[in-house]
């Protein structure tokens, strides 16, 4: 019974860490640094972190035969969503940024179902629906979201959720266990930099190395470190419990993101938040991994 909860422990830990990145993103954008500069520095630090991990784990840092896989993950999982998030962050609260991640499970399930990779399952569908209801309970009582600009940026971060869902499915079905998680993330970050560094330079929006020690730079460093840990836990969950179950991490990210926003920025929420937590937990519980996947997880 203890081993059965391993997948839940993984998404709880990854979600709690990831939730804090939304507040860090708000801190990173406060000094006016350009979103391209923020994205570039985050990916540089991410590449350095995973290079160190790869060397210590004695796995390849980069392998040319996997260049195509690095490119796909780099585009849909790093460059595109990071740029969208850093553009949206100044216009939305940490709570709203985290709430948008709740759409990842819905997109993941729909993509898997549409491709014929996942059969319709009433229990899982109900879990996803409850998760979405939990988000509505969290957001609607607290925010009118009537601003045209706000709606625009919310759509932008929902697009990020769609990209993450595509990444989930690609890693699970297109890559599987062919590549070490650390190699995949390191190689993807390196490939991303081939695009980011020249574009940032020619746009004239780069930041010097000394910028890393500013408030924004330290926030970006925190995002890179926390994301590295969370990504590793999350991708391990994809491989051992499946992308639909792993995507439930988004619900934990949402709740922890709201709580981090309250702690750091004193964002105001009502009793609806706690009602949402209860519904959220029930929804996550309904989306349990199959016995075969649990067995695989306990054997690794």
Helix content: over 70%
Report mean pLDDT, rounded to a whole number: 81
So what's the overall shape?
globular
What profile does the largest beta sheet have? Answer: none
Question: What percentage of amino acids are in beta strands?
Answer: under 5%
Which ranges are low-confidence, i.e. pLDDT below 50, for 5 or more consecutive residues?
142-147, 291-300
The helix tally amounts to 13
> How large is the radius of gyration?
19 Å
**Helix/strand class:** mainly alpha
- Count up the domains: 1
Oligomerization? single chain
What's the N-to-C terminus distance? 16 Å
* SS elements, strand count: 0
Describe this structure in words.
By secondary structure, the chain is mostly helical. The chain has one domain (3-299). It has helices spanning 6-29, 35-57, 67-88, 94-99, 103-114, 122-139, 148-175, 181-203, 215-241, 243-246, 249-265, 271-286, 291-299. Helix 1 (6-29) runs antiparallel to helix 9 (215-241), helix 2 runs antiparallel to helix 8 (181-203) and helix 5 (103-114) packs antiparallel against helix 6. It is globular. The relative contact order is 0.23.
Helices and strands in order:
Blueprint: H1 6-29, H2 35-57, H3 67-88, H4 94-99, H5 103-114, H6 122-139, H7 148-175, H8 181-203, H9 215-241, H10 243-246, H11 249-265, H12 271-286, H13 291-299
